Amino acid sequence: MARHFLAKCLVLSLLALITSQFHVAASPNSKTFIVVVRHAEKTKPPTNQTLSVAADQALPLTKAGHERAKLLVDFVQFLSSLSGKSVSDIFFTDFKRTKETVEPVITRFKSSKPLIQEISKDKSVNSTVLLVKGLIDDDIKQSKPGRIIVIVGHSETVPTIVSRLSGLPDSSVPPILKEQFDNLYLISVSSTGKTLRPLRYGERSK
Questions:
Q1: Residue 2 has what pLDDT?
Q2: In terms of C-beta density within 10 A (0-12 exposed, 13-18 middle, 19 or more buried), how is residue 52 classed?
Q3: How far apart are CA 126 and CA 83, in angstroms?
Q4: How far apart are CA 82 and CA 65, in angstroms?
Q5: pLDDT at 26
Q6: Residue 50: pLDDT band with limits 50, 70, 90
Q7: What whole-number distance in Å separates Cα of residue 39 and Cα of residue 92?
Q8: Of 7-21, 43-57, 88-102, the least confident
Q9: What is the value of pTM for the model shown?
Q10: How far apart are the C-alpha atoms of 163 and 61, rounded to whole Å?
Q11: Which has the higher per-residue pLDDT, 64 or 192?
Q12: Ordered DSSP codes for the chain
């Protein structure tokens, strides 16, 4: 409990620190914030056992993973409160661990009726980027209010998704290591440009 409280304080402190750079509290209506993370800690399969695709898809989060998922929703909630925007779209893959990571966000923002999209992992990079870019372009062209978009992916998909949504070459975002679960990428998009802020949240990965 104490560890979760301290980690939560760290998450909120980090977000408070970057609001001045992102102008979150006074953001123009057309500014959209995209939160991208890898799924939280997952249950490890038995040693030296090759998993089928179905078995891999079914691996749930560990206790530590569920604690990190709680911190993700705290981060998103604070971002929503400061920006005056709600979560409009949530993307995750057809793996139990990505859904469990974002489940607290879905529950917290249920009243906002966000569009929830589960995308096959092997199509998640291109499909997610295409759909998100379409939403942002439409908002800017029609001067619609900005939004908050949450994306939960995998170590091999998140860097490319972040790079492309930030307008950077695919190799710009460093790879995510196997035991690294604390990366959080905050992307700000408006008619004047894009800004990427790599962050860490929750307990530091080893």
A1: 47
A2: exposed
A3: 28
A4: 26
A5: 46
A6: confident
A7: 9
A8: 7-21
A9: 0.89
A10: 26
A11: 64
A12: -HHHHHHHHHHHHHHHHHHHHHT-TT--TT-EEEEEEE---BPPPPTT-PPPHHHHHT--B-HHHHHHHHHHHHHHHHHHHHHT--EEEEEEESSHHHHHHHHHHHHHTGGG-PEEEEE-GGGHHHHHHHHHHHHHHHHHHTT----EEEEEE-TTTHHHHHHHHTT--GGGSPPPPTT---EEEEEEEETTEEEEEEEE-SSPP-
Contacts of 132 (CB under 8 A, 6+ apart): 34, 89, 91, 149, 151, 165
Token look-up 């409990």 returns 1
Checking 52-60 for CB contacts under 8 A at 24+ apart, the result is 56/95, 57/94, 57/95, 57/96, 58/96, 59/95, 59/96, 59/97, 60/96, 60/97, 60/100
Residue 25: pLDDT band with limits 50, 70, 90: low
Count of positions (residues) in the chain: 206
